[in-house]
């Protein structure tokens, strides 16, 4: 039951989570929809990668048929998954006037549909063993409407938060906990590329005075999937340095 899956593994948060899981002795299904990015991640992981502990797989996490076939492959060729980190997603920064219906639907597909489809596909095995962990990568934007993000992204993260609540209530009786993490301003290439003036302004608004490190996000994942976190269910854990306190 120490088999985990991380979707969107090639992103900064995904990479940190995969590395943490491998270092903690988990078997890890490493997913991404970009083959070259997935190959680069495997190369970066170096000696942590071996066929007994890693199962890299590339598929469209937003397509129902693709997800079902991939889950069958994983179960048959590797191990059943009992820990899922729904990290697949995209960032969108356009305001409502510049957001087309296609942009809106694409953001929902990546940020919400993928979590629904993969969770639905993996739940039967978790229910069979009466144990499982699902952690969704939410965002402060889902609670605030977004400080520097667009309307589609903020709305999808609000939807993912509600999905977390609904799924947690439905699955708790089966020994499966569902929680989310709502980070803000993780140190990523995107944040590092902000204009100096914006970085200065953001750091003035964040009480701890710095951006979050990806490893801190991964550490929160480590806590939520542990057996002793089994009484935490349906929570969205803020990880924003005090930018939003509730």
Automatic annotation (TrEMBL):
The keyword Oxidoreductase applies. InterPro entries: NAD(P)-bd_dom_sf, Sc_DH/Rdtase_CS, SDR, SDR_fam. Its EC number is 1.1.1.100. GO terms for biological process: monocarboxylic acid metabolic process. Coiled coil: none annotated. It comes from Gracilariopsis chorda. Gene3D superfamilies: NAD(P)-binding Rossmann-like Domain. Keywords: Oxidoreductase. This is 3-oxoacyl-[acyl-carrier-protein] reductase. It catalyses: a (3R)-hydroxyacyl-[ACP] + NADP(+) = a 3-oxoacyl-[ACP] + NADPH + H(+). Belongs to the short-chain dehydrogenases/reductases (SDR) family. One of its GO terms (molecular function) is 3-oxoacyl-[acyl-carrier-protein] reductase (NADPH) activity.
């Amino acid at each position: 039951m120490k088999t985990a899956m991380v979707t969107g593994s090639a992103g900064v948060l995904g990479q940190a989570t995969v590395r943490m899981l491998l270092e903690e002795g988990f078997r890890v299904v490493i997913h991404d929809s970009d083959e070259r990015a997935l190959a680069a991640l495997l190369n970066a992981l170096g000696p942590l990668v071996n066929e007994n502990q890693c199962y890299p797989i590339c598929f469209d996490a937003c397509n129902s048929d693709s997800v079902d076939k991939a889950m069958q492959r994983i179960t048959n060729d590797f191990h059943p998954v009992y820990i899922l980190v729904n990290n697949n997603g995209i960032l969108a920064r356009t305001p409502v006037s510049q957001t087309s219906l296609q942009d809106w639907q694409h953001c929902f597909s990546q940020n919400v549909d993928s979590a629904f489809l993969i969770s639905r596909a993996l739940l039967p095995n978790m229910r069979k063993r009466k144990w499982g962990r699902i952690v969704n990568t939410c965002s402060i934007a889902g609670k605030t409407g977004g400080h520097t993000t667009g309307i589609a992204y903020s709305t999808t993260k609000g939807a993912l938060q509600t999905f977390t609540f609904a799924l947690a209530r439905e699955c708790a009786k089966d020994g499966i906990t569902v929680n989310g993490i709502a980070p803000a301003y993780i140190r990523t290439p995107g944040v590092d590329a902000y204009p100096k003036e914006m970085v200065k302004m953001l750091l003035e608004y964040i009480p701890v005075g710095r951006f979050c490190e990806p490893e801190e996000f991964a550490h929160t994942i480590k806590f939520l999937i542990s057996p002793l976190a089994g009484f935490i269910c349906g929570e969205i854990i803020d990880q924003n340095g005090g930018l939003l306190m509730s």
